[in-house]
């Protein structure tokens, strides 16, 4: 079957695109949504059931459709969660809200377009003579579309050392994907845990351990030993920032922002003022300056930009203050065994000295890999046939300002878009819901506008 739009993926980006398509396309249109994740739309982050796993963005900015800004807050109230727009909801509630929003749109019978959900993995893509892009599916079927939106996420970052070097008896205690929460049930209450990586995923896992009754030591190893900072209950007003007035080099930009941070009562006002302008600032930077940012400034950007809810931060900070959670700055170099324990050898940052952390468990919380294409067989296949091109800095796929893929050799008039983390090379700040929902809406509007023009031309011919 030939569809008007094929959405490839099953995470938040896919559901945001699908909901916008349902709202904007006429009843005559046909949509296919292809993905093999049974928790369509909720993804890993929003399937967690732990109440301490909170959103990192206030509820008032988390509505799925940006033209219905109060939708999520109203949903919370209607489900007995009377949170305000500035409060931080649980991620499990947000997953349910996403599911309910899609279900509500699908229940519409008056003029709703056709939507087919295909539980399969797209394994290959080719151009067809009928002006479409066709996808081969893992179940043996093939579908084709006049417009395609790639909504594929990124894979889990791998451990920097091969876990195969550890004894077989201890490999089951190396947790490469911490979001498979079954491992928590195997941890004894007093076990020592070493967490590799100190970002948001690390905080989630620490709180999950505590919720399961764990009271042992937790050592956190990351390259710089930095941890995310917290939001405040009453955030300061964003500081107005003129992007065009900022310098053109990363070092000068950071100097300017630090000066502004020292001049205000709370540095968060500077970050929040910069927040809606980040994409514009990124697009002003040269490739050399973007690479310099990734090499030198990214860790500090992350801890200030991607903050955690106040309640979550207070709980975590208490564990750090008590010495239960200890930070180490260094580079993991080896994994070996000492009797029935793991020894994680690391080079201490700024030195050549090697230290070791003894633990019963090693948990990979280095987060998601940088938005490349190597984790996806489909993307590698599309790259091989030059239907897509990798971003020069390894930040996903090359797209233009409208999120349309810039393919080196594609000749089909079918249009190929990408939404979400794979467009980081063009937009940088494109992993959070407030950014993705705007991008999804803009992509759908572009598809609908071109379709309307084509139908008008056909009627006049």
UniProtKB/TrEMBL annotation:
It comes from Rhizobium vallis. Pfam families: NAD_binding_9. Signal peptide: none annotated. Residues 7-154 form the FAD-dependent urate hydroxylase HpyO/Asp monooxygenase CreE-like FAD/NAD(P)-binding domain. SUPFAM superfamilies: FAD/NAD(P)-binding domain. Transmembrane segments: none annotated. InterPro entries: FAD/NAD-bd_sf, HpyO/CreE_NAD-binding, L-asp_N-monooxygenase_NS-form. This is FAD-dependent pyridine nucleotide-disulfide oxidoreductase. It comes from the Bacteria.
